[in-house]
């Protein structure tokens, strides 16, 4: 099954095109997860806290969202122990039926890019010559700065392993325009030129719903740019960061969608995981209290986005 | 001590501005490293082979090169076990007096970029509130696609932890020009604009020799571009990929250096680690035979580069 179809089916069944960014922040994970952490190795202790927290969050939202987006940086910072917590999180999320979008913004050339692609999306050769999945994410975010030959190995992996990528096209941060908005000799911005390339590649990866697993990252904070990018990449799924904590609201993300209410998933991390409680509340709450609060925040985001979409797009398929 | 000074002092003492890329390729590591690999867990078995191979290579070349450049993709592909082998490799290389340039091309925004920076270059907060180094590399490569605000956290980490970065400015691959050569409204290419930014940041990070730990990646395969980039970034150290297997020769890398014979380190991976022996030889050699062959390849690269530099730059300081 094409992973983009799985993402779409999950979106339709949950009536929710928003995903939760699993960005563990040890300073903000509630105290009740930390009190009994095993402390043989301090990195292992943190990795255990992170995985327990993620597992409970996943259990609490698995029926509400189509996918989770773990951000690799927040695991990798704790070295191999953190990466092990990442692996367990991916595996658990998949076991609960969620699509896993790994946000790692990998980029390199030739066989080095191939190593990233095999490791994150595909399988790797072992000593005995057999091949085994390593991270086994469904989607991976990739950075296109090195040009199209640096993207080929990731696209090949999508074909070989039936996986997907989101290529950074227009990012949500303030400085994104310094490179991405530069106008090239053909009158297109760098973002638009990358979009054109993504769209060309997307063609052969479309699934049942007409969408492609070769997707794009388009920030919620640039809705004007999103209009032209949506036109340039009609078949590509968009991963939309920048909602909530970064300033994007429900109306800003409308241009990322098509008339069918599909074509994009919107990410929120901090507003779902942490900011619905104060520091003091996070210090004193029980796990159950905290998780219910996560569920409430998840439902609120679903309602906010769904109602705006429903109002705008009369041909929504869910 | 500024890490760039350590890199320079190692370069002077070895009379060698070339570094070895530690890119483990399990298909090319000689058979003698694989026969007795413990196989309880197939990923752990590979990680053990990789670390043993790296440790022996480091022992064999520690007196010949100033630094090693492990490429994270080739470790990370084996998940947390591979990352553990990476950590041990970094630690061992540093214990042998080598500078460690981590090639991971990390990039992200805000606190996510901060998580990468702390994890790879600095220290991370543990449950008890204390801070501990995680990967603890000396230098990290970073990709500037998201703009200057995405580079700030890495630059801050360089200041806080006395470390260095190499910002991708002009990469060695065929497609690098698609984005990097685009001419901006001020008449500069994207590469040149990034170079200007790097140079502005470099100023406050200069060490004893007048060079900065805020450096740049400039491919050996684009020597014309290197001329202008060297002028734009007089104080930044260059990390030069693309030598050897990718087609760059000793004369191509000359513009990356200054008159003092400093200002750049040239990387070679495959030509040092693997291609000096045939598949058949790698299947049959002893460890000692293989390692002597690595040493010979390392000495040859040193001689090739040093003789060309010495001939061109009469004011060389080594």
What distance separates the N and C termini of chain A? Answer: 21 Å
- CATH class category of chain A: Alpha Beta
Question: What is the approximate shape of chain A?
Answer: globular
Provide a count of the helices of chain A: 12
* Largest interface (CB < 8 Å): A-B, 73 and 73 residues
Structurally, the number of domains of chain A stands at 1
Instruction: Indicate the multimeric state.
Output: homodimer
Average pLDDT of chain A, rounded to a whole number, is: 96
The CATH H-level homologous superfamily of chain A:
Aldolase class I
CATH architecture of chain A: Alpha-Beta Barrel
The sequence of SSEs of chain A as H and E is HEHEHHEHEEEHEHHEHEEHHH
Task: Compose a concise summary of this entry.
The structure is a homodimer of 318-residue chains. Chain A is α/β, with parallel strands linked by helices and 318 residues long.
Word description of this protein:
In chain A, the strands form two sheets. An eight-stranded parallel beta sheet of chain A has the order 1-10-9-8-7-6-3-2. Chain A is α/β, with parallel strands linked by helices and 318 residues long. Chain A starts with a helix and ends in a 6-residue tail after the last helix. Chain A contains twelve helices and ten strands. The first copy, chain A, has helices spanning 3-14, 42-61, 73-76, 79-95, 110-121, 148-161, 177-180, 190-202, 223-232, 270-273, 279-284, 287-312; strands at 18-20, 67-68, 99-106, 123-125, 131-133, 139-142, 164-170, 212-218, 236-240, 264-268. Chain A is globular. At the A-B interface, helix 2, helix 3, helix 4, helix 5 and helix 6 of A face helix 2, helix 3, helix 4, helix 5 and helix 6 of B.
